[in-house]
Amino acid sequence: MTPKMTPVYESWDAARGAEIIAEHSKMEGATLPILHALQEAFGYVPEDAIPMIASTLNLSRAEVYGVFTFYHDFRAKKAGRHVLKLCRAEACQAAGGDALAARAEAKLGIAMGNTTADERVTLEPIYCLGLCATAPSAMIDGRLVGRLDEARIDALVSEAQR
Amino acid sequence: MSVRLFVPCDAGALAVGADEVAQALHKAALERNVDVEIVRNGSRGLYWLEPLVELETAQGRFGFGPVTADDVPSLLDAIIADKSHKLSLGLTEEIPWLKRQTRLTFARCGIIDPLSLEDYRAHGGYKGLTRALTLSPDAVIAEVTTSGLRGRGGAGFPTGIKWKTVSQTAADRKYVICNADEGDSGTFADRMLMEGDPFVLIEGMTICGIAVGATKGYIYTRSEYPHAIATMTKAIDIAKKAGLLGDKISGSNYTFDLEVRTGAGAYVCGEETALMESLEGKRGIVRAKPPLPAHHGLFGKPTVVNNLLSFAAIPFILDEGAKAYADFGMGRSRGTMPIQIAGNVKFGGLFETAFGITLGELVDDIGGGTFTGRPVRAVQVGGPLGAYFPRALFDTPFDYEAFAAKEGLIGHGGIVVFDDTVDMSKQARFAMEFCAIESCGKCTPCRIGSTRGAETIDKIRRGDRVAENIALVEDLCGTMKLGSLCALGGFTPYPVLSALKHFREDFGPRQPRLQAAE
């Protein structure tokens, strides 16, 4: 049931990339499924993959690049070893999420949207995990955590720093 | 002895430790040498009680909650000894919060094993499709029209009329799209249903496909919902293997196939035309309407785009008949609405009820006020594009027209509760900031206006020419309302203007907030 916890990614390999692209290329509107699959495998969408997608789907590189950059999810480079996403939407704000987000930023010494210098932790805002009745909420490497308080956010930060 | 327990696999329950509880139960059962079967059900929607463990008995299910892994040994001992436990809630069905509801769409959620077709059928599943297959497509559409069902995504457009338009448009291919891109903060009904009763959505979409002559359906949902995606995908596979999707559905001559597609963190893709662009593999840029999706939708083909909750209401309507559904509700808002109560609230969760209940009942009576124990000051209804309502408007009945009359909207049915520490100019600023982050960029008032709006509210908060800048924000909101193609730019003014109208005292130079009563 649970998605993979600590992500382990392959290193970029053009042949493997081509295989992933080919696997999804017959789908209707294949661009997003391909980008998702590449990121799932490599942890980001390598720049070299963009022209490969374009030629497979008979699109221009600009079109594929445009799609890649439009969506918040897709990364141009690898994230930190752990990704900590804190919900910053209204329900979590109402439940005290702003102060907890500031606390996480202070503990990690980075602002939202950044990775620590040791590349261990990427801290990101997320706009709603659908856990609004057990707010404030977070996601760490695909695992969900609700009813955050200071103790729980501290535990999450130390877990991410490991 | 043999014990049958239910521990939800709903993401909301997992986030507060349901997996740990299930593991602890397995371990404790082994240690005590008792035979324990653990069913992973969906959530009942009583989130303050999650993880809610239920015990099956001859009288019904007994609830215990909120259970932590540490409670498990004593809980299992109490269950084995048939004694009461400090977390005992009695019969789950008798909990007033649940008993007061009218669960039509969520009738099975939290009760069945989400991936058991047998469970689904035993609880009335696939009766709607069976009846639909005995009717002509036009008769199915007539049934939906008569039920009065209106789009549950927020716009409230009559579902039957949309279906009729698609059915009457000739094409070699037609599509059915379920908009499960539930991005509004304060909403989680789509997620709960995909995780707790996925077959109801499959059944509803299949009925739609048959009625309008479409052979392919897409469920477009969010990457933020990994558990929902996993459950939905498995359910589709199970339905295919059982002959309920694919060629010759249930032995009929109809073909209908389904696929889950995942968005990539763009809120604007919840707008139906941006959603279709995204499904086509493009940037999620809003299209101008007309042409309507019903005429010229996905890949240029006639397409039904409905909210998940609209499709999920269909099996009941076909099974029990249009009148049974239309008997609930008020005015032009027929049937039930799964309302989601969230934020700073004591008893948060999913409350499905007939339209007409007042906002005050929902917040004070059912929600029990705030969990911080402080007075409720504002509630935002309908997500980030919904208005903020003060207590003075708590007599507003939950109904499309009644909310519109008070310059608000019910949207997807989410209510976010704030206590008296909320700073409403900060909330208004966030509405503009969120619009700036999520704007697709097509319409200038949305793309640029949102950034200018946030900057101008910053000036107000600094005390810089407050009156002039408030007038400027109001004027800008007018431009955004009238000059944006979709609801993102068009409705961002709702939270901003409502905050200005009802909480004007918060707009001016901001002092560092006093930590009152501490």
How would you characterize this protein structure?
The complex is a heterodimer of chains A (162) and B (518). With 162 residues, chain A is an alpha+beta fold. Chain A has 7 helices and 5 strands, in the order H-H-H-H-E-H-H-E-E-E-E-H. In chain A, strands 2-3-1-4-5 form a 5-stranded mixed sheet. In chain A, a hairpin with a 2-residue loop joins strand 4 and strand 5 (143-145). By secondary structure, chain B is α/β, with parallel strands linked by helices. Helix content of chain B is 41%, strand content 15%. Chain B has 22 helices and 16 strands. In chain B, the strands form 4 sheets. A 5-stranded mixed sheet of chain B has the order 2-1-3-4-5, covered by helices on one side. A 5-stranded mixed sheet of chain B has the order 13-12-16-14-15. In chain B, strand 3 and strand 4 form a beta hairpin. In chain B, helix 7 packs antiparallel against helix 8 (159-168) and helix 9 (189-196) crosses helix 10. Chain B is globular and about 75 Å long. The chains are: A alpha+beta (162), B alpha/beta (518).
Oligomer: heterodimer
Widest sheet, order of strands of chain A: 2-3-1-4-5
* Tally of alpha and pi helices of chain A: 7
Shape of chain B: globular
Euclidean distance between termini CA atoms of chain B: 52 Å
Numbering strands along the chain, what is their spatial order in the largest sheet of chain B?
A: 2-1-3-4-5
Number of helices of chain B: 22
* Through-space gap between termini of chain A: 25 Å
Features:
heterodimer, A: 162 residues, alpha+beta, five-stranded mixed sheet, 12% strand, B: 518 residues, alpha/beta, 41% helix
Summarize the structure.
The complex is a heterodimer of chains A (162) and B (518). Chain A is an alpha+beta fold.
Q: Strands, helices and their partners?
A:
The complex is a heterodimer of chains A (162) and B (518).
Chain A: H1 14-24, H2 31-42, H3 49-57, H4 61-70, E1 82-87, H5 90-94, H6 97-108, E2 114-115, E3 121-126, E4 138-140, E5 143-145, H7 150-161
Parallel strand pairs in A: 1-3
Antiparallel strand pairs in A: 1-4, 2-3, 4-5
Helix pairs in contact in A: 1-2, 1-3, 3-4, 6-7
Chain B: E1 2-6, H1 11-14, H2 18-32, E2 35-39, E3 53-57, E4 60-64, H3 72-81, E5 88-91, H4 96-99, H5 117-122, H6 127-132, H7 137-147, H8 159-168, E6 175-180, H9 189-196, H10 198-212, E7 216-221, H11 226-241, E8 257-262, H12 272-279, E9 303-307, H13 308-320, H14 322-326, E10 329-330, E11 333-334, E12 336-343, E13 349-354, H15 359-366, E14 376-381, E15 388-390, H16 400-405, E16 414-419, H17 424-438, H18 444-447, H19 449-462, H20 466-483, H21 487-491, H22 493-502
Parallel strand pairs in B: 1-2, 6-7, 6-9, 7-8, 12-16
Antiparallel strand pairs in B: 1-3, 3-4, 4-5, 10-11, 12-13, 14-15, 14-16
